[in-house]
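Progress note, sequence design subtask.
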């Protein structure tokens, strides 16, 4: 999946947790994208079996979409904590950098970071 698709899926996931119901306009507002851009992206996510769009416009993550969203969010949160812990940067800087890194990090490196975090959690 492309970086933008991961961003959309993660945004739908987080908005659903926060608001309970998510529509394309909510995603557009959250990401600062135009409604046509988001509409096109939602069509791609739907075609890829990651979301369904209900009759009332609600966006619903499929089982595969939810799995993908949780994985992207896990990378984001772990990377944010890791950067704050090891680089001593602010949460804002760590969040911004984690958002970039989460799309390109290898599974092996991410496993290593998770292991490091687990081993150094108490310190």
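Output:
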């Amino acid at each position: 999946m492309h970086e933008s698709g991961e961003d959309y899926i993660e945004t739908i996931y987080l908005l659903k947790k926060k608001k309970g119901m998510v529509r394309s306009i909510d995603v557009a507002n959250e990401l600062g994208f135009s409604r046509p851009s988001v509409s096109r992206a939602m069509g791609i996510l739907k075609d890829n079996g990651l979301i369904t769009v209900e009759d009332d416009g609600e966006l619903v993550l499929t089982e595969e979409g939810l799995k993908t969203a949780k994985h992207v969010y896990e990378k984001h949160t772990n990377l944010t904590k890791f950067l704050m812990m090891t680089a001593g940067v602010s949460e804002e800087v760590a969040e911004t950098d984690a958002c970039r890194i989460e799309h390109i990090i290898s599974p092996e490196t991410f496993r290593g970071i998770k292991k490091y975090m687990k081993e150094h959690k108490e310190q």
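Helices lie at 3-19, 24-31, 35-47, 63-87, 91-101, 107-119. Work on this subtask will continue into the next period as scheduled.
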